[in-house]
C-alpha cells in the first residue's frame, strides 16, 4: 500500500515536473529572442558578436509544387490521337495534330499538370552539392495523357503509370557559393540564356537571352555556370542517339546529336546586361534519332516533326551535319527597378550544313543553312507598379521562298530536334502564337519562330493595369504577323498571301496569394490571307481559357 | 531585313536604353557604418553624432553587455524648445530623415534622430531582442537620459510601430506622434509569421546583388526618384562590404520577426492618448505586403486612423513608402502643421472608446510593411534566389 502510494507520488511528481517544465517553456517563449547571460569574462561580448540563433537556416530538403489546371473552350480543334492527348503545332497543318478551325466546330477540354521539384542538400556535404529531381504528371480530364498502361489516369479507374522524369541532376558548388560557380550534372532544364535554371525564376528565363525561342526544354548533360566578371554558361548535351549505321554498314555504335552552348552576359550597369552566345550542334544520327520515341524522328529529315512543331521540312535523306548559332542579346531594366523604361532584345544568326549520307536517293544532296532572327521589346511602366505596363514587341525572322532547294535562309531552332525543343514564351498572345500556360495543347498560328520556314514579321502591343495592386490585373493585347516569304499554296487554284493574321485578346488575373493565380483569358484571331485556300482553317479561331496556377513552396 | 540592319536595330535599341542606365557602386570601397555621412543635405555640415549606453534596457532584457545607441542631437531655438525624436524604419538609419532634421531645427525644435540598436552607427548586438517593444524601451531610455520633456515622436514604417508601442506603454512620456507610413496596423496570421521566419536569412540579405538593391530601395520605396537620392544606393552597396554588415543583416532578420511577433500595437491602438497624425503615400508599394496580401495602403491606414482616438490621416497622392524623402515638401508641410499644433496643445484627443474586436480591414490587410527582403521577390526557400523553374512547357 505504502509502496503503491510512493509510486503514485513519484508518478505525480514526474507529471508535475513535466507540466512545470512545459509551463516554463511556454512562459519563456516571448523571451526566446534573448540568450541567458553566461557569467564570467568574455562570453557576453562574444555572444553579442557571434549569436545568430534565430537566423533562418537553409533546409536540407525542400519540395516545390507546381500545379496547373486549365479549362479551354475554343474552335481550334486538334487531333490528340497521335500523341495520346496532346495537340501540338500550327493550325492548318494537314498532318500531326492537324489543328483545324471550321464553322460550327468547337471543343472544350480540361488539362491538369503537377510538377513536384525536390531538392536535397544534406548538411553533411556542407554546401558543396545539391540533388534535385523533378517529375511531371499530366492529365487531360477524362482521358490519358503521355501515358502507358491500360487504365486512363484522367478517367474512370485512374491508376495510371504516367510520371515523366523531367529532371534528375546534381549541382556541385566548389566554392560553396552557387552564384560563383555551379557545375550541373544530369538531366536538367536547357534554355537559351545564361542563367542557372535551378536557381532562376521562370519570369527571368523567359524575358532574357533569346526568350526560349531557340531553345527551351530539358536535356541530359553537363553545364557550368560562373559568376566571375559577369555571367557565363558552358553546356554540353547529347540531344539524341541512334544506331545510324547498324542496318547499312553493320556498325552497331551509337551516333550522337551533340549540342555545345557558350553564353556570356556582362552587366554593363545594374539591371543592364549585354550578352553574346555561340552554340554548335553536330548531328551524326542520319535522321534515325527520335524526338518522340517510336513516333516522330528528329532532325532536318524528319517527316513528322515539323507538323507538330511548326518548323520547316527539308527533303534530305540520312543527313549528317553541323549547325552553329552566333547571337547577341541585351536586357535593360526589365523589372523597372531603376526607372520606368525597360527593353530587351536579341539578334541571332544561324548557319550550317547538312550532307546526305544517301545522295542517290535524296532529293537534296546537301542543305546549307543561313538565317537571321531579331527581337526587340520596349516596356514602359505607366502606373504605380511594375504590373502597370505598356509593351511593344517585334519579332523578325528571315524566310525562305523555296524550301525545296539546297539553301535554307530561315531561322533554325531546336524545334528541329525536340517536340517541342523551343517555346517562345513571352509573346503575350493566345492564338497568333500559342498560349504558353498549357499542359498539352500548344497550338496556334505560329508555333516556331521560323514559321514553317517562311519567316515572320510580328508586332505585339499590350497594355496591363493592376486594377487592385498585386491582386487583380487586366491585360489587353493586340498582335499581328506576316510571313517573310510567300508560302506554298494549300490548293493549286488559290493563291496564298503572307498576312497571317491579327489577334486581339484580354486576360484577367487574380492573385489569390503570391504565386497562386486564377486567370480568365480570351483571344480572337482575324485570320489573314496566309490561310487562303486552306481546307481546314475556314473560320477565325477563338479561344477562351480559365487557368489556375500555383507554385507551392 | 538584312543581318546588318538587324544588328543595327539591336545596337540602336541598346544604345537608347543605355540612356536610362544607372551608375554602379559595386566596385567602390567598403563603407563602415561608423563612416556614414551624417550631414545636412544642403550645407553638408556634419550633424553632431553622440552615443548613449542603454543599461536599463540591457537589464530589462537580460543582456550581458550594455549596448550603445547612436543619435544626432540638434539644439532647438531655446532651452524650452519642444523636442522631436525621429525614429527610422527597417533596414535604414537616421539619415532617412535627412530632409526633415535641419528643416525641423529651423522651425525652432530640438531635433533628436536615433539609430536604433542594430542599425546605423549604433551597436548591433546579436542578443538584443529587436522587438518593437525593446526598440521603444531603448528610445525611452534615450528620452529619459537626455531629460526630454514629452517629445513628439516621429516614426517611419517600423519606426512608426516602435513609436506606437512607446505611446501605448508610456503615454506620459510623449506629447504627440507623427507616423510616416507606419507599420503595425496590419494583422498577421500565425502562418504568415512562420513564413517570415522561414524566408528571412542574413545570408539572403548579404548576398543581394546591386541590381536587386535598386529594386528594394528605389522601386519599392519611391515614386519620385531623383539623382540626389542615389546615396541610398551607394551606401547600401558599400556597407554590404563592411565587416559589420553581417551583424546588421542579422539585426534585420530579427527585426522582421519583431515586427510581426505579436499584435500588441494593433490590439491597443485605442490606448494611444496623444495627438497623432498618420502621413502616408497613396502609392505605397510595401503596405500592404505585395506578397502576402496585395491591395492599397489606404484601407490599412484608415484602419489605423479609425482606431487611434482623434488621429488625423493625411494621404499624399502619388507618393511611395519612404514618404518623407519621396515627397519631402508635402510631408514636411503636413508634419510641421501637426507638430506646431500638438506642441501648442491645440489638438484635442477624445477619450478612448471601448475596445472593439478589431475587424479585418475591408481592403486586404498586409503585414507590417517594410522592404522585408533585399529583393523585390522573397526567396521561396531560404538561401534561394528564386523559384526553380518547374517545366511549364507543353511536352508530350
From TrEMBL, chain A:
The lineage of its organism: Bacteria, Pseudomonadati, Myxococcota, Myxococcia, Myxococcales. It comes from Myxococcus xanthus. It comes from the Bacteria. Residues 1-33 form the signal peptide. This is Alginate export domain-containing protein. Keywords: Signal.
Automatic annotation (TrEMBL), chain B:
SUPFAM superfamilies: alpha/beta-Hydrolases. Residues 83-326 form the AB hydrolase-1 domain. Gene3D superfamilies: alpha/beta hydrolase. The keyword Hydrolase applies. Pfam families: Abhydrolase_1. GO terms for molecular function: hydrolase activity. Residues 348-396 are annotated as: Disordered. This is Alpha/beta hydrolase. It comes from Myxococcus xanthus. The lineage of its organism: Bacteria, Pseudomonadati, Myxococcota, Myxococcia, Myxococcales.
